[in-house]
Write a structure and sequence with these properties.
Oligomer: heterodimer
Family (chain A): Belongs to the ELP5 family.
Distance between the termini of chain A: 95 Å
Number of strands of chain A: 9
Protein name (chain A): Elongator complex protein 5
Mean pLDDT of chain A: 81
Shape of chain B: globular
GO cellular component, one term (chain A): cytosol
Order of helices and strands of chain B: EEHEEHEHEEHEHHEHEHEEEE
Strand content of chain A: 15-25%
CATH superfamily of chain B: P-loop containing nucleotide triphosphate hydrolases
Low-confidence stretches of chain A: 216-226
CATH architecture of chain A: 3-Layer(aba) Sandwich
Radius of gyration of chain A: 38 Å
Structural class of chain B: alpha/beta
Shape of chain A: elongated
Mean pLDDT of chain B: 76
Helix content of chain B: 10-25%
Number of strands of chain B: 14
Strand order of the largest sheet of chain A: 3-2-4-5-1-6-7-8-9
Low-confidence stretches of chain B: 1-22, 123-140, 376-400
Order of helices and strands of chain A: EHEHEHEHHEHEEEEHH
Structural class of chain A: alpha/beta
GO biological process, one term (chain A): tRNA wobble uridine modification
Largest interface: A-B, 50 and 56 residues
Number of helices of chain A: 8
Largest sheet of chain B: 9 strands, mixed
GO molecular function, one term (chain A): tRNA binding
Strand order of the largest sheet of chain B: 8-5-9-10-4-11-12-13-14
């Protein structure tokens, strides 16, 4: 599912890439960018805070390179020199829209933020969430891909950003040295949730090779392979039935077994479920009079 | 808690079974009784209650939601089922003819209204009759019992919770409500990005919400400000995802939020508004993001009824065989004591929910009997029967029929 994350063509996509210090997610991010660039008419705007432009473009296909617009927020992110291309404080809906309007001919715009951790350090996390939501719903951008370093922020902050995302990819180093492990969660518009865990590695040309799909991590159902001890074995008396004995047992007519018609008749809810049938015996004094009638009070 | 504005004086309390149609008893009621469509007096404490839209949830919180109170729903991880409950609540308001007020920072209220489930109008809240009531005894069928045949037609153990009286409607989740029905309902919306052009710092967003709500209540006369000629109605308020970062609140983002009292102040003001008007509110809060547990406790205390949802989707519980029939767990955290000392609740605390197409059921979570293959019990048809447990004791819905 790692590769299907980018295939959605509907607007309002928000892909969150989570990494930690043990495995950097930037390679996967560049792989996503190169996939997006391979599609015709698609323009990618990158807000680069953590890597310079030369390093970022390294490895990307040269032919598509002019559709990648890199906004340099690496040299001067806080605007100290006064003539920075993009500062952290410019992360608002209006300023980002201005950037996007520089390429009006694009059919679809993908906005890549590398990385959001920089912005989260300088802005209130709630405000960042609101701006991301505005970008998502704004319509100017079709997909937003965001890289976040989870070990730099509090759990609640990362959780809030996850809550907004339509797809979340968490990368971690692989255990057996084969590559890295990616856990993907995708939420469709109808509310359906899909999860996957895969081992992958990234090749020289920034394409992703999936090695194996790990089984669902929550699969804890263990088949009971220990054999149950048969209690009827090793006894001094016989508890088992032979075939003839079993047939004789089944043929035995049980007491109080009625025929089918009588059972059906008894099962139908009758007019009165409890009827008292009383037949007076010879010894019974069936006198209708009330014995208290002659009481004179 | 003070008495609500809508307390009904139930003088002759023997007529509590108003909605049950097995009695022809008509309660002699004075004209003091507030009769608003979609509401009825509670059988427990005489409060005017409305349905939440989900009949099982009504049963679990004590019959329904009292007018003038606040229901808190703690969201599940991906906000799927809590959103569904909000939609049920609003759909019930549309069907009963109540007015709606929807506030959200994430989706436009008109989008939420368009997604409401469509009501099943020919099957109004009637409990399904037990199908096997008049099944004749058939010794050859696989379901018949040969020894305990007198118990053949008795109903199986009811695990679904329901009360006997009619209240509330059922909805079909796969269809959305007809636009004509939606437009017939009066709906007020509050969409946060429209109310503040820039990113709104907190707690201004909450203040704006409360002011807007107060203005709507006063203008439409829910607090009694309009003269009596207008017929009374109930306002259903649905507030989506309060406390999330989109409202400008960093309650979910930080362990020590900078304005920790903003949401609690809003809930306090909201409850005051509710108590003085004919309205009922449902609030969803993403409690799984709130790191500060003490704050969550305060939020729960400030609401009247509190219910927490935990969905199995995406967690390791999804493959647990115990939970395979259900979509998640439901925990009733708090139920209010409105003008009474004790409230009557179903005693079972382990509740699980399942969203089916036509019903959102909440059931008691029970362990199925151990019918693994290694258990040495054989089953042969015929007269001898088999030595198995009786069917009335265990709540298994399985195909294996059990006989004495």
């Amino acid at each position: 599912m790692l590769l299907e994350v980018l295939q959605g063509t509907e607007a309002g996509g928000f892909i969150l890439l989570q990494d930690t210090v043990s495995y950097s997610g930037r390679h996967l991010l560049k792989s996503y960018i190169s996939t997006a660039l391979k599609r015709e008419e698609e323009v990618v705007h990158v807000l680069g805070f953590e890597a310079c432009e030369k390093e970022f473009r390294d490895g990307l296909d040269r032919t598509n390179a002019q559709r990648l617009h890199f906004h340099n927020a690496y040299s001067d992110p806080l605007g100290w020199t006064g003539n920075s291309a993009f500062t952290v404080h410019q992360f608002t809906l209006e300023d980002v829209s201005t950037l996007i309007k520089q390429t009006p001919q694009a059919k679809a715009v993908t906005l890549v933020i590398d990385s959001l951790s920089w912005i989260l350090r300088h802005h209130d996390p709630a405000a960042v969430c609101q701006r991301l939501q505005a970008l998502k719903k704004g319509g100017a951008v079709r997909t937003v891909i965001v890289l976040v370093h989870t070990d730099m922020h509090q759990r609640g902050t990362v959780g809030s950003i996850r809550h907004l995302a339509t797809s979340v990819v968490t990368v971690a180093p692989g255990t057996r040295g084969l590559g890295a492990v990616a856990k993907t969660t995708r939420r469709t518009k109808s509310g359906k949730l899909m999860q996957d865990e895969e081992t992958f590695s990234i090749n020289e040309d920034l394409s992703v090779t999936i090695h194996s799909k790990l089984s669902h991590p929550g699969h804890t159902h263990v088949n009971t392979d220990e054999t149950e001890v048969d209690p009827t074995a090793n006894l001094t008396f016989n508890l088992r039935l032979s075939d003839t004995e079993r047939q004789a047992k089944e043929k035995l007519a049980l007491p109080f077994v009625f025929s089918k018609e009588k059972k059906s008749a008894l099962l139908q809810p009758g007019p009165g479920s409890g009827r008292i049938l009383y037949e007076p015996d010879a010894n019974d004094d069936y006198d209708q009079e009330d014995p208290d009638d002659d009481l004179d009070i | 808690p003070a008495t609500t504005a809508t307390e009904v004086s139930v003088g002759k309390s023997t007529g509590d079974r108003l909605s049950c149609n097995t009695t022809s008893f008509q309660k002699k009621s004075r004209s003091k009784l507030v009769s608003i469509p979609g509401t009825r007096p509670s059988v427990q404490n005489g409060q005017l209650i409305v349905s939440t839209g989900v009949t099982s949830l009504d049963y679990v919180i004590g019959g329904g939601l009292a007018v003038g109170t606040l229901l808190l729903i703690e969201e599940d991880r991906y906000d799927s089922y809590s959103r569904m409950l909000l939609k049920y609540f609003l759909a019930e308001g549309v069907v009963c003819g109540h007015e709606l007020y929807v506030a959200s920072a994430q989706d436009h209220p008109s989008d939420i209204i368009q997604e409401l489930p469509s009501p099943i109008l020919d099957d109004i809240a009637s409990p399904k009759p037990v199908e096997s009531q008049t099944k004749p005894c058939d010794p050859e069928g696989p379901d018949t019992m040969s020894i305990a045949w007198r118990y053949q037609n008795l109903p199986k153990v009811q695990t679904a919770l329901a009360s006997s009286s009619r209240f509330g409607h059922y909805y079909d989740v796969s269809k959305t409500m007809d636009p004509e029905i939606c437009q017939a309902a009066r709906c007020h919306g509050f969409y946060l990005p429209e109310h503040s052009a820039t990113v709104s710092p907190m707690p201004e967003a909450y203040v704006a919400l409360l002011k807007n709500l107060q203005e709507v209540i006063h203008r439409e006369g829910f607090d009694g400000s309009l003269p009596q000629t207008k017929s009374r109605n109930v306002l259903r308020i649905g507030l989506h995802s309060l406390g999330s970062a989109l409202w400008g609140d960093d309650l979910c983002c930080r362990d020590n939020p900078s304005h920790g009292h903003a949401l609690t102040t809003l809930l306090y003001g909201l409850r005051a508004l509710l108590r003085s008007s004919l309205s009922v509110a449902l609030v969803t809060v993403p409690s799984h993001l709130i790191q500060n547990k003490a704050l969550m406790g305060r939020i729960t205390r400030l609401c009247d009824t509190a219910v927490a949802l935990e969905s199995f989707r995406g967690s390791e519980r999804e493959t647990n065989p115990l939970y395979k029939d259900y979509h998640g767990l439901l925990n009733v955290c708090q139920v209010p004591h409105l003008n009474c000392l004790v409230c009557d609740l179903p005693d079972n605390k382990d509740l699980a929910f399942k969203l089916k197409r036509k019903q959102f059921t909440i059931e008691r979570l029970h362990l199925p009997p151990d019918l693994s293959e290694t258990v040495s019990r054989v089953s042969h048809g015929g007269l001898a029967g088999a030595a198995m447990l009786g069917s009335s004791g265990c709540g298994s819905a399985g195909n294996k029929h059990l006989d004495f």
